[in-house]
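Researcher: Next entry in the queue.
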Amino acid sequence: MVEPLEVGSQASSFSRIYGILMHRMASSDETTITASSKTIVRSIIVFVVGLLVLFARKPDSLLNPQFWAEDGRNWYADAYNLGSIAALFTTEAGYYQTISRLVAAASLWFPLEYAPLVFNASAILIQVGVAMFIVSERCKPILEDIKARYLMALTYLLLPNSWEVFANLTNSQWHLALLVCLMIVAAEPATRLGRGFYLGVTALAAVSGPFCLLLLPIACVQTYLVRSRHKATIAVILALGCLVQAYGLLTTTREVQSALGASFDLFFQIVGRHIVLGPLVGVRGFARLQSWGLWGSVAAEIATISGLAVAFYLFAKASAQIRLIMLYAAMICVTALAWPAVTLEPGQWAVIANNPTALRYWFVPGFAFCLSLIYLLFKQETKVARYVSASLMLVCLYGVIKDFRIDPLKDLEFRSRAAEFENAPSGTVVTIPINPDWKMELIKR
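Model: Structure for this entry, 445 residues:
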């Protein structure tokens, strides 16, 4: 016969169990709070450092803000002249550019003299946001080591041969699309708020330029690999974005120059200069090579063949996530060579090959190249892989130093022009010069 437990013994057992459970819950809460605190501190550090780095590279973007290209001629002028809603549904070069239109609409709440500051500050915040995401735990599947993610975020902010995409709203679409690419291959968020953020950014990027057309295949491949409903939702949003952008292309006329003037020599010149040497030595480093007489057809062929060999080696050694990012970068290169929008004059390839222009096309390929190098540096155990990546990153450091300071825009005295506009009679068409040698026309209300 089994005797029942005594009341005192039973109470003592329950007390011990209760104590163990409470201790574990307290430890779990403490761990969660500690992890959350570390994440917050890390985000604040990256945010502050990112702002300081971008300000140090281009201080005039905040100290003497001016419109750059479409920022003034299209985004602000359309919002002011047509109204925010009408401008939002107006295409530019055949595409809808929602992020630029939204910021332009917000800038109307401020006097004209402060509008460029709103544009530049928004562009800088987008760039810093990408850096913060790179460092976050969500990018752990891309770069497992936190030190590698810090290095990648810093490299992203300091990338040579990419001055055109820094601190201007017109080219913020490139950063936004890169963020979506990272989200596609990164870890899924654990909360509804996080998933909503992913989907919201994806939707915004899908209607901000043509990048959804290139991101959709990446999202489909990633969805197939991980069998994720969340990744499938991202792919669906990108597919809807493709339909929207296709409608814009089919219903508007896009003024382009189809005469590329393509040749094998120009192909080697473009690839060797912008894709291979660009992220390594930067614009100023390449100019130094030219001044030394070290650049020509033979040098371009050697650089291109060597660069492609290294790219295939990096692709073979990379993880599935980084391979998808490299694939996205490769599609951008192909698109840029097939349908560039650099000049309306014949011979676009010659313009690209012989000038430090259209650097926006090579920003993502440069990022993917450095990402794969950092991956090898921290992940691969073979000495050869580490030596290759470390050597190329040291060369890239030279490019970072040479291209660190971005030349300020030509001072066109925008504030005085804005003051003249404010004092103009209603109905007056005011023409304001903006960089780079463009004009913005506003009809005074």
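Model: The chain has two domains: 40-254+410-445, 259-406.
Researcher: Noted, moving on.
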